[in-house]
Amino acid sequence: MATPGSESIWLWIGTIGMTLGMLGFIAKGWSVTDKEQQRFYVLTIFIPATAAVSYFAMATGFGLTEITVNGQVLDIYWARYADWLITTPLLLIDLALLAQASRNTIYTLVGLDVLMIVTGLVGALAATPAIRIVWWGISTALLLFLLYFLVQSLNEAASRQTESVRSLTTTLRNMLIVLWLAYPVVWILGTEGTIGLVPLYVETAAFMVLDLTAKVGFGFVLLRSHNVLDEVAHTESAPSAAVD
Ligand code: RET
């Protein structure tokens, strides 16, 4: 366990932001009685809740370790990967349920996503620069394949959706693509990439802004459209299991 440096300010802001996001979603979902709508709330509340715990762990130094690469000591916040391992599948499930995608689509997305995060973690902990870059390449290839598969399968599911569901799905899908593509860039330019172009202080701020937008921003856009969530609930003549 190491002690966080000046970047801890961003981790505290992340902790507060995620906690407020979680409380906001709980308050918004409090009076929702429709079972189908509730599942979006359950999924979406656990996303900032998990991140709040991870940010708190990082801010207090629990989620931080030091890795020596070529004699250079890198501060690696491994708790991010624990957060992402849980929350990125939840984000994908949220979107796939909205799009009324098949179960096989959901399993494939989650499988690719878990591999992407785990290979990223191995890269972050590896002790040789070249090996770190190879893991980054593998993780990034998985991300690109995941995004390609996401676009394909959401297009395929579009025929089952009403106009407003399709439009919200497209908005969230585009948000997801743009935000998720920024993660490997921050990683390779930051501490993890060992090039040291972007210092830890800036990297931590960048990940915090990305995490807040990809979790709280995404959840807010999803949950604000109650009428749309209602349409998902009531046009499910073909429940996802039946369209596999
Ligand atoms: C890593 C390692 C380097 C290569 C790639 C990565 C991708 C990370 C992503 C994270 C998304 C996180 C989200 C968090 C919550 O809001 C692991 C940085 C491709 C896509 C959306």
Low-pLDDT stretches are 237-244
Number-wise, the strands total 2
Reading the helices and strands in chain order gives HHEEHHHHHH
List the total number of helices. Answer: 8
Distance between the termini: 46 Å
Bound molecules: retinal
- Strands of the widest sheet, in order across it, are 1-2
Coarse shape: globular
Overall mean confidence score, pLDDT: 93
User: Largest beta sheet, briefly?
Assistant: 2 strands, antiparallel
Regarding quaternary structure, what we see is single chain
Features:
244 residues; mainly alpha; two-stranded antiparallel ribbon; globular; disordered C terminus; binds retinal
Describe it.
With 244 residues, the chain is mainly α. It contains 8 helices and 2 strands; from the N terminus they run ααββαααααα. Strands 1-2 form a two-stranded antiparallel sheet. 40% of the residues are buried. Bound molecules: retinal (RET). The site of retinal has 17 residues, from helix 3, helix 4, helix 5, helix 6 and helix 7.
